[in-house]
Design brief:
By secondary structure, the protein is of the alpha/beta class. It folds into two domains: about 1-25 and about 110-360, 3-Layer(aba) Sandwich (Rossmann fold), CATH 3.40.50.11540; about 360-425, no CATH class. The protein has 13 helices and 17 strands. It has helices at about 125-130, 145-155, 175-180, 180-195, 210-220, 240-245, 265-280, 310-315, 355-360, 370-375, 385-390, 395-400, 410-415; strands at about 25, 30-35, 45, 55, 60-65, 70-75, 80-85, 95-105, 160-165, 200-205, 225-230, 260-265, 285-290, 300-305, 325-330, 335, 350-355. The strands form four sheets. It has a six-stranded mixed β-sheet. Strands 2-8-7-4 form a four-stranded antiparallel β-sheet, with no helix packed on it. Helix 1 (about 125-130) runs antiparallel to helix 2 (about 145-155). The radius of gyration is 21 Å and the shape is globular. The chain starts with about 25 loop residues before the first strand and ends in a 10-residue tail after the last helix.
């Protein structure tokens, strides 16, 4: 299949070898889970439970509010022991409304219906099942998936792209998911395709993931799904970059992918859709990569939502040395953590403990006008000029140069020879 030329991008050291060959392990259920009510784009969910109430795994504990929101479910069976503010996974260190569940040790599921043929449902019923399951974009965007399905169907989207790019250094959870659960992902892809009425379906996977490509290609045999190898570069996992590579189409500024007839979902989202539609299971856990030079035994874990990050590090052998920085997500677009006592949420793809050598520490120097940041920008912006406007207090000038189109991917900062943290402006 012909691929289209991409703009910008960089090739940071991948560090994926730390965890890529580690098979998925299931994290033992923690004694307590801290489940935030706002883990998605849109309005926070409204709690439906009371302190002292016993809940089952998969039970709805907070309902979605408004058009763009997502339901929250109990990740295990147990007792609601608190509803109130708890530390949030945010660089500000602020708290957020959270439901605390103390496990009863049984991990007992709420009874659900199982469909032998999920394709017997109507497209509307599939979207409703996805919404009821609280599924959001698991590639990091956390936009409610049912909303995307409904809007795509109404906008007559005809091309479905499943994003297996996973371009962030260190992160390998999607790679392992594709290697180990390819058939389940492909079923989820086909359900999404049916739900929106797409006639073209592609799974884009970076060429540096040969085992995932092989597993997904084998699982797609005899289906309408095409598995395509795309260039291994950052930010290949950005939905608009993936669209450009596979279709050559450009999403207009301030536009949506549906405006050009395309819907993009992450591979983990497709897997969650299959679980929700076939088994009636809501999104209560996800795969998380635990990695970095300071982690004793990096790996890929299946983790209940609401598990504290510190529990993941402990399960992976703790720290082999004191980390210079802890990161939630990848090193390019993730957020720095000042405490590991924060919960894993639906959008958590990785937790990293990095050494001083991995992060480096060079003082910024004056801009030398080399334009490396311009060449690296996948959006085609002028990072050095926008930063200059912002430094001088002229934010309007930066906006006029396209600041609102910036995706904060960090390519500009990565290539800057003066080590100017351009993305932070």
């Amino acid at each position: 299949m012909k691929l289209f030329k991409l703009r910008g991008g960089v090739h940071p050291e991948s560090w994926k070898e730390l965890a890529a060959e580690r098979a998925i392990r299931v994290l033992p259920m923690p004694e307590r889970l801290f489940v935030p009510l706002h883990q998605h784009v849109g309005a926070a969910a409204q709690p439906l439970v009371r302190v002292g109430e016993h809940v089952l795994k998969g039970q709805l504990i907070a309902a979605s509010q408004g058009f763009i929101s997502a339901a929250i479910h109990a990740p295990t069976s147990g007792v609601i022991t608190a509803i109130g503010d708890f530390s949030a996974a945010h660089p500000s260190g602020l708290t957020a409304p959270t439901v605390t569940i103390t496990s009863d040790g049984e991990d007992r599921w709420l009874e659900t219906r199982v469909l032998s043929d999920p394709f017997s449902l109507s497209p509307e019923e599939i979207a409703a099942a996805v919404g009821a399951a609280g599924i959001v974009g698991l590639g990091g965007a956390t936009f409610p998936s049912a909303v995307k399905l409904n809007l795509s169907r109404k906008n007559n989207v005809r091309t479905l792209i499943i994003n297996g790019g996973e371009c962030e250094p260190y992160i390998t959870c999607d790679d392992r998911l594709m290697r180990e659960r390819a058939a389940e992902i492909i079923e989820g892809v086909r359900l999404i395709c049916y739900a929106v009425g797409a006639v073209e379906v592609m799974v884009g996977i970076e060429a540096n993931k040969p085992a995932a490509l092989a597993a997904m290609s084998a699982a797609a045999v005899g289906t309408e799904v095409k598995v395509v190898a795309v260039p291994a570069m950052y930010p290949m996992g950005w939905d608009k970059q993936m669209i450009r590579a596979l279709t050559g189409r450009e999403v207009p500024a301030d536009g949506r992918t549906a405006d050009i007839g395309v819907l993009v979902h992450n591979v983990a989202t497709a897997y969650a859709v299959r679980d929700a539609v076939r088994f009636g299971r809501p999104l209560v856990s996800r795969l998380v990569t635990v990695s970095g030079g300071a982690v004793a035994a990096p790996g890929n874990l299946e983790v209940p939502i609401g598990t504290l990050v510190e529990s993941l590090f402990e399960y992976c052998g703790g720290f082999s040395q004191k980390p210079a920085r802890m990161v939630l997500g990848g090193p390019m677009m993730g957020i720095e953590l000042f405490s590991a006592a924060v919960p894993v949420v639906k959008g958590t793809s990785g937790v990293l403990a990095l050494t001083e050598r991995e992060i480096g520490s060079t003082r910024p120097a004056p801009c030398i006008r080399c334009s490396s940041c311009v060449r690296a920008c996948p959006v085609g912006l002028l990072p050095l000029e926008m930063a200059a406007h912002i430094r001088s207090g002229n934010s309007g000038g930066a906006v006029s140069l396209g600041l609102k189109d910036c995706i904060a991917c960090g390519c500009c900062s990565f290539v800057c020879p003066s080590h100017i943290p351009l993305v932070h402006y």
